[in-house]
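Propose amino acids for all 234 sites.
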């Protein structure tokens, strides 16, 4: 839908055509997938008096009238575009690139198989674009080399591994103590967590445990590793 057609639609809906509404509709039409703050920034460059609340009210009105479509695009806030023919979005989780693709008839056919008439669909496919896939591959290769290097520098093989991702912090000491009990003196236990803060807290936490000697700490991408050695009983 072009701007003149949108103006006709606003008149037909008995809505005032203000300069600010025309400005915001033009910005959305010229720059697909902007969020409200980005729309506001561009509008402010042309109209210093426009407010963020005006932007929010206007995009909501345009959305209610079916002139603008809101999509999450894998984020926790909406992005806006002028409503066009039905299409789907490919969203790169690495760089945020959004690629539009034509609709797939299979979706409507699936609805028909269940006796459902599909009149519209919003589909967002998330993944990684070609450039981000290359970057991830290079990063993973480097990470693998680092993992090997860190493990080779340990004083011996890891006898047991405990994964604490998703486990409440208050339960960590108990979990580690129980796993240490399964080891013989001198054997190594590897502890895996995900939050950087927990890695930083590891030395203090391990000080409270009897029979645990911290050997090494390191990060591997989003994962954090701590290796401890079970000490012999005094």
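Proposal:
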């Amino acid at each position: 839908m072009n701007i003149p057609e949108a103006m006709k639609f606003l008149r037909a809906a008995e809505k005032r055509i203000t300069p600010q509404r025309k400005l915001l509709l033009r910005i959305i039409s010229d720059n697909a997938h902007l969020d409200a703050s980005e729309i506001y920034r561009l509008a402010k460059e042309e109209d210093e008096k426009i407010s963020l609340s005006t932007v929010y009210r206007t995009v909501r009105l345009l959305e209610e009238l079916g002139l603008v479509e809101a999509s999450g695009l894998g984020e926790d806030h909406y992005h806006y575009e002028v409503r066009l023919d039905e299409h789907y979005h490919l969203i790169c989780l690495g760089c945020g690139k959004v690629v539009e693709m034509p609709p797939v008839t299979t979706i409507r056919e699936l609805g028909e198989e269940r006796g459902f008439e599909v009149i519209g669909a919003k589909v967002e496919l998330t993944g990684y674009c070609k450039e981000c896939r290359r970057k991830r591959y290079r990063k993973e290769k480097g990470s693998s080399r680092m993992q090997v290097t860190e493990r080779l520098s340990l004083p011996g093989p890891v006898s047991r591994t405990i994964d604490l991702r998703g486990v409440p912090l208050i339960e960590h000491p108990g979990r580690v103590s129980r796993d240490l009990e399964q080891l013989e003196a001198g054997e190594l236990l590897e502890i895996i967590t995900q939050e950087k803060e927990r890695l930083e807290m590891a030395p203090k936490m391990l000080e409270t445990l009897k029979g645990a000697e911290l050997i090494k700490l390191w990060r591997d991408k989003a994962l954090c590793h701590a290796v401890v050695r079970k000490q012999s009983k005094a």
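The helical segments are 3-12, 19-30, 36-46, 52-64, 105-113, 130-152, 172-181, 196-207. The chain has two domains: 3-131, 143-230.
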